[in-house]
Design brief:
single chain; 274 residues; alpha/beta; 9 helices; elongated
Length: 274
């Protein structure tokens, strides 16, 4: 419910955060049926937020498992259609929980939903593709073996900056990968290797650093009117995310909460003056 309530509002706030964003070949994302959106992951939680509010279809996102350790955070992220994936670096004792997440994904595909997975598994504000993990291939393999007509859609995300407002974003969608593209999906390691090679080839071609020169006028107007909020969000985010990949994620989250407060203050001031 929280996802459905916040989604249109957060999309509006995105216009105040980014100068522009462009999608290439967005028609490659099926309008219905089970979809696994296999994306690059250059910008931490902001990647999932961006895709969730700019694509028309509802998205269930896989996110780093350590973010779900506190009960209240787990409830919040779950209400935003996010599910945990644990890495070995988080401790072997948590890896078994990934089975629950993959079972949930399986149920979602049975209901013709779309799931977002970051196939690199890591985020380092990278500008080039990192080696792919096997999670995407394993999930697709299980679903295909059970006869579900899953479509895997590669997507390359590229940003012109990771630590300031007014960014430009490219979202390039690749060609659908489906079961019929492979001779066999049950050959264990061989299938995983072939799948990752096909996915890697597409993702590399989808990373584009040629950004649109057009700019959304709302951003420039907003920057003048809302400069105190931009300055405050920048200062807070830089202080608490120094040396990490979370600047955009924290700065954007702060804008979501602080902009309406600032607008109310401005409205009160105007009413007093007038």
């Amino acid at each position: 419910m929280l996802y459905l309530i916040l989604r249109p509002y957060v999309r509006i706030i995105l216009h105040f955060f980014a100068k522009n964003w462009t999608y290439t070949n967005i028609q490659n994302i099926p309008k219905s049926g089970p979809v696994l959106l296999a994306s690059t992951h250059p910008n931490s939680f902001f990647d999932a937020m961006f895709l969730a509010v700019t694509l028309k279809r509802r998205i269930w996102s896989l996110a780093r498992g350590d973010a779900f350790r506190k009960d209240w955070v787990k409830r919040l992220l779950s209400s935003l259609y996010m599910m945990p994936v644990h890495r070995l670096s988080e401790g072997k004792e948590h890896l078994g929980d990934n089975d629950d997440t993959f079972n949930k994904c399986y149920e979602l595909f049975q209901k013709n939903e779309m799931v977002l997975i970051f196939s690199e598994g890591l985020c380092t504000n990278q500008t080039e593709l990192l080696p792919l993990k096997k999670g995407t291939a394993r999930l697709a393999q299980r679903v295909w073996q059970d006869g579900i007509d899953l479509k895997v859609v590669p997507l390359g995300l590229t940003y012109d900056s990771f630590d300031k407002f007014g960014k430009r974003i490219n979202a390039n969608v690749g060609q659908v990968i489906q079961k019929s593209d492979f001779d066999e999906v049950s050959q264990g390691g061989l299938f995983l290797k072939n799948f990752n090679q096909k996915l890697e080839t597409q993702l590399k071609s989808l990373i584009s650093h040629q950004f649109s020169a057009s700019t959304n006028f709302i951003y420039y107007l907003a920057y003048i009117v809302n400069f105190p909020v931009y300055a405050l969000c920048t200062a807070i985010s830089r202080k608490f995310t120094k040396g990490t990949v979370f600047f955009d994620s924290i700065a954007f989250a702060l804008m979501i909460f602080l902009l309406p407060v600032y607008w109310v203050i401005l409205a009160v001031i105007l009413c007093v003056i007038i």
